[in-house]
Specification:
Blueprint: H1 2-65, E1 80-83, E2 86-91, E3 104-109, E4 113-119, E5 126-132, E6 139-146, E7 155-157, E8 160-161, E9 169-175, E10 184-186, H2 190-200
């Protein structure tokens, strides 16, 4: 009887050791899978952030391409004021969330923030949106290409005001450790200028070729 009990006791200990070994292996597999899932989730979050920033850079280009050359007489907001660390201007973007035909105020700052404010309803209610053009660790600098005065050669300027008209180009540069973003170079009023060129073209539309 005693020998049989000892055999049963030894078998129970072996089973316990096997069970602990299986549990340890399962825990190792679960921790490895959990770590992979966390890293994958982090990569997905980073990708979503990069997509939002790319959309913000596209929006900044769109606003600059639709900047106004003239403002309403009663509009006291800056028409176009450019500095190395900040740009403020008025623009009308047909596809924006703001009231159609109403000028919105757009600001681009050195911390990479794009801020747009304007009226979005006929009752005069205003809205303000903000988005990041680049990661937080990256700083922006702005330059303006054009002739600062009549008769002077065009060159890159650190500052630009509405009294000089509009610059020919605006360039946004991204600075920071490991930065991989190319400069964003935009022609102000590009949409309107292209529309004027289309209306003033003397060439008739091309006729479809006959088979």
């Amino acid at each position: 009887m005693t020998g049989r009990r000892r055999a049963n006791t030894g078998l129970s200990m072996l089973e316990t050791m096997i069970a602990l070994l299986i549990m340890a292996m399962m825990g190792l597999m679960l921790s490895s899978g959990l770590g992979t899932a966390i890293r994958s989730f982090g990569r997905d979050a980073d990708l979503q952030t990069e997509i939002r920033q790319a959309i913000a850079r596209r929006d900044a280009r769109g606003w600059l391409e639709n900047v106004l050359a003239d403002a309403a007489p009663d509009d006291v907001r800056p028409l176009f004021e450019g500095a190395p660390d900040r740009l403020a201007f008025l623009a009308v973007l047909p596809t924006s969330r703001f009231w159609p035909g109403e000028a919105a105020q757009v600001e681009i700052s050195a911390n990479g923030m794009l801020t747009v404010s304007g009226r979005y309803s006929k009752n005069g209610e205003t809205s303000r949106t903000s988005s990041n053009l680049a990661p937080e660790r990256i700083r922006l600098s702005l330059q303006y290409w054009g002739s600062p005065a009549h008769g002077q050669e065009a060159a890159w300027q650190d500052r630009w005001s509405a009294s000089q008209g509009l610059p020919d180009l605006v360039q946004i540069r991204f600075h920071g450790a490991g930065v991989r973003l190319p400069p964003l170079t935009v022609r102000p009023r590009k949409a309107e200028l292209q529309s004027e060129m289309s209306r003033s073209s003397l060439l008739p539309p091309a006729r479809p070729s006959r088979p």
